Amino acid sequence: MIKLVYGGSGSGKSSFAEQLAVSCGAERKYYVATMQVYDDEGRAKVRRHQEMRADKGFVTIEQPVDIGVAAERIARGKGTTETCQAVPTAKTAVLLECVTNLVANEMFPPECFSGIEETVVVARIKSGLEKLFSCADDVVVVSGNVFDDGAEYDESTLSYMRALGAVNAFIASKSDEVYEVVAGIPIKLAHQSKCAELC
Predict the structure, then answer these.
(1) How many Å apart are CA 88 and CA 77, to the nearest integer?
(2) How much is the pTM?
């Protein structure tokens, strides 16, 4: 089962997504972290998320780019510790956080200041996500809402936003459930099959 959890910064989406991942009842749980830490604020955010996951049995895989590599590691039943030589038939859940960072990391690598073309980034991420979706019984994906402020942006930021929108739409199209989290309240959105029934 694939679930997308979407919301603004500080909305409570991370906490809710973690609850969904834990409630899957999987014997093996992986947390795929995409955030690259550059400053004290980033370090504080990582610490807060680590505290949230403490004692919940997640194996963390740091994967800021090329999400397909994390999928391959999960498929082999290996995380960052040797204790995950688990039984191949064990139920597996993956919590991927966060697509917002993943798109930024793929689009603006340190060695390419001008950024990678958005269609290339979207295709690469879609390919990696397909691998991730096929290697686990349950996948919960966290993504951010960066689209509502109405500000004007330069072309590179607009390109990033278009790429993120395309990736979010792709994930939603593959998802069994989609949630938007607002002020700590998860709202289950109608799935596309439901929309087709209403139209």
Answers:
(1) 7
(2) 0.85
Cβ atoms < 10 Å from Cβ of 57:
13
| CA diameter of the chain | 51
**Contacts of residue 171, Cβ cutoff 8 Å, sequence gap at least 6:** 2, 4, 99, 129, 141, 143
Region 63-75 average pLDDT: 94
Does residue 103 carry a pLDDT above 70? yes
Report CA-CA distances (Å) from 8 to 2, 146, 175: 20, 7, 19
C-beta of residue 2 within 8 angstroms of C-beta of residue 175: yes
Residue with token string 């959105």: 189
pLDDT tens across 17-27, in order?
999 999 999 99
Nearest residue to 136 via CA among 19, 57, 15, 27: 27
Mean pLDDT of the chain: 86
- Strand pairing category for 2-7 and 177-182: parallel
- Residue among 125, 17, 119, 26 nearest 71 (CA): 125
In this prediction, residue 146 carries a pLDDT of 87
- The structural domains of the chain, ordered by start, are 2-183 (3.40.50.300)
Count of residues in the chain: 199
Q: Rg of the chain's alpha carbons, rounded to an integer?
A: 17
Instruction: Give the N- to C-terminal CA distance of the chain in Å, as an integer.
Output: 25
